[in-house]
Every structure is written in C-alpha cells, then in structure tokens.
Amino acid sequence: MPDRAAAGAALRSLGIEVEWRQAPVAVDVKAIRERLGLTQASFAARFGLELDSVRNWEQGRYSPDPIARTLLKVIEQSPEAVDKAVAA
C-alpha cells in the first residue's frame, strides 16, 4: 500500500475525501462458520474462499490478512450480503 498521507493527498487533489479505517483485529473463523452451520468445505465454497485458508485460519497456522478479516466480519454480520455479492 502506498504511503497513506501521499495517497490521501492525491485523492483530495481529485476532490475525493477519504477516511482511513483499521481492519478488525481478530476474527474467530470457526465460530462464524459453526454459527452458520457449515462445514469448512461448504463455508469456503459459499463465500468464495480457499478451503486450505479456512483450515489454516481455524487451526491457527495462519491469521487472515486485513482484507480477509474484513470479509469475515461482514460474513459474521450479514452473510446474505456476501452471498448476493459472490453470486453477482
């Protein structure tokens, strides 16, 4: 990612205001998946995720990156919205 200050200045010069936000710090992937009543494979398929990524996140081998954490938070709060976006 480019320097935020430089990116913000460039966008402002185009008349675009930006507000930088932080991705969620932590997401419990297994809890989200289980709340939806899905297997790892069905969770991955439903939301367009790699099955190996889901497994690795749940087993603590890797942590989701900021973009994945944001997507997982949206899945947690509004899975139907992600279904709609993935199907489009």
Shape: elongated
CATH architecture: Orthogonal Bundle
Kindly state the percentage of residues in helix. Answer: 55-70%
Structural class: mainly alpha
**CA-to-CA gap between the ends?**
27 Å
Keywords: DNA-binding, Transcription, Transcription regulation
Domain HTH cro/C1-type: 29-82
Organism: Niveispirillum cyanobacteriorum
Protein name: Transcriptional regulator
Give structural notes:
With 88 residues, the chain is an all-alpha fold. The chain has one domain (22-87): 434 Repressor (Amino-terminal Domain) (Orthogonal Bundle). The protein contains 6 helices and no strands. The protein has helices spanning 4-13, 29-35, 40-47, 51-58, 66-77, 79-87. Helix 5 (66-77) packs across helix 6. It starts with a helix and ends with a helix. The model has no long low-confidence stretch (mean pLDDT 92). It comes from Niveispirillum cyanobacteriorum. Residues 29-82 form the HTH cro/C1-type domain. Pfam families: HTH_3.
Keywords:
single chain, 88 residues, mainly alpha, 434 Repressor (Amino-terminal Domain), 61% helix, elongated
Describe the secondary structure blueprint for this structure.
Blueprint: H1 4-13, H2 29-35, H3 40-47, H4 51-58, H5 66-77, H6 79-87
